[in-house]
Amino acid sequence: MVQTYQSPLRVYKHPFELVMLAYERRFPTTPLIPLLVGCEVLSDAYSEDSAERITERRFKLIVEAPYLIKKIISTDFVYFLQRNELDARARTLEIESKNETFSNRVIVLEKCRYFVHPENSDWTCFEQNAELDVRSFFGFESTIEKLAMKQYITNISKGKEILEHYIEVLREEGITYIPPWKPPETKNEVCDELSKLDLKSDGTVEEHSLDKLRRQGSMSPSGTNGVFVLFSERHELEFQLEDDYIRRCLGELDPMQESKLIQFKKQIWFLQKGKLPTDSTLLRFLKSKDYNIEKARESLSQSLTWRKCHNVDQILQQYEAPPVVRAYFTGAWHHCDKEMRPLYLFKLGNMDVKGFLKTIGEDGLLKLAMRVCEEGLSLTEEYTRKHDRPITTWSLLIDLEGLNMRHLWRPGVKALLRIIEIVETNYPETLGRVLIIRAPRMFPILWTLVSTFIDETTRSKFLVYAGNDYQSAGGLIDYIEQDYIPDFLGGPCETKLPEGGLIPKSLYMSDADWEAGKHAMVEDTVYHSVSISRNHPVHEVILNIDAPGAVITWDFDVMKQDVVFNVLSIHKTVESIAPVSGLSLIDKAWTEGVDYECVETPILCHDGESIQGSHVTSRDGIYILQWKFCSDSVSTGMDTSSLIGGVAKAQVMYYYEILPSQHYRGSMSSLQSAHSGFSALSMKGGASR
């Protein structure tokens, strides 16, 4: 299996020319890299005006491996080839390194790039990509792969330290500024520049010409591996993250976790055409799947579709708590814990679960839980900015004083389990700690019922205190500042939580209304879900347009596999327009352009994509929105093999609407087909830097 690494964007707050001089100080060897024991310059050539320089080197490195591996490979050293292309005019350095030893068995390819920071010309950026492919190695392929990746990751963190060390050495030598390259104005100046070239031992200039070296090299765009595109375009840096930003806003990640995050962001960036959820959202879903990119992508895609279906992005603006919630719900935000995480207090023991279900229904309880989760996400972002440190989770304190058998009312438990399941799926890695206090003897019964619906990682964050144990050593004082301990737990901090208690039956809904409200957030949605497979390869929505000028709009998400989306207009008279499951209204004998026509260019939609679009009809009659199963991924300029699982069934969730021409008064440009973005969870990737 090919292993890849992609670094975050490192930023050196020094000019490019000074960084380049510090970089050159690393050669031929340095005590800071003890494994590097030799460096031979194979060629070194300049352009006529000295603005461009190509250098090729061979490095000798000590093999750091177990004794058995050394015995098998019969060598203590390995050799690598490095090619540097410095463009002083553009202020860029591109580096390509590959292994010379065992190159027929193992392929190691690394590409690095130094370039000027796009927002500050006095700063220098660095990015790094690497690929390891162990094709054959005496039956030890897996061992070599793990060993090589471990060694590579260990050395990555040293790179910035080494460069900063030599920048400090230059400063101690009095060198703090190197003037940028300027084109020579006279022939004599050109000769002076050429005289600076390294000479051979016999006094002659190295025979390799710059053009010849360029032809021999592999830095050209046409020879660039897709994994190692050097991102010279500003928009191509949208999915990059600066290492300082990661530490400051997302937390400490090891190099492989940083790499996984950037690769994950890149995949979502391609699927959503540049629109991205926030970096903290990406990291939460990635963490929840143990940094498995494919599983995280599938989970995130489903969650974003769920948010769209139920308009979750607007819940903070649109949700208004019913009077019964304001009067009887025993939960509220309360300062923070010792790790500066927002703290939510919830007196479950005082909550009338049956009363809430009978007054606001399961749907109302779920919306209330979602609002709390959305507020938690908003507060973590606010606290991150306020305290200038990464705060990505919030804490929950649950008081079980008063918990009794009425809390085990079966419909109430079922509603609780459903809410837990939805929250676990769509808000992973949001809870930092859960403190359960004053747990009664019956708590193990409730815990047995709900714990199976809680992720193992989340369960490990639960701390349970029976009786008054929370007041002793290892209790609340270890997690919450003394000044913030709530008054109802014996602390000095006043809280404004309702007392809760039984909700009057006069506020209950009728039985008919309560039954009708069950699972409303699942059933009451404008979106339709359909599966398309090889056996049922087509799904069509038949639309009857009464007058030209009507606008057909659509919004759909591809949940699994690839599909091709078409918009068709039927010219032929059709006796029956009732759609048949899995079959197309278009007869195979019909001729395109005569009996029907495609009024929009067909779109190949990949797993995970979200599509919005519209079409202004030019005639009345029958139109068709058509989704066709696509068994093979078709190249669209991106390798999607890593994004799409080998499933035999596609799933599409869609919504459509017809806007009559007399009702539409908007700008036609706003209805042009486009890929949709997100709202509350979304931002342009570049803004995060």
TrEMBL record:
GO terms for cellular component: cytoplasm. It holds the Pfam family PRELI. InterPro entries: CRAL-TRIO_dom, CRAL-TRIO_dom_sf, CRAL/TRIO_N_dom_sf, GOLD_dom, GOLD_dom_sf, PRELI/MSF1_dom, SEC14/CRAL-TRIO_domain. Residues 321-497 form the CRAL-TRIO domain. Residues 523-658 form the GOLD domain. Coiled coil: none annotated. Residues 2-175 form the PRELI/MSF1 domain. This is SEC14-like protein 1. It comes from Cacopsylla melanoneura.
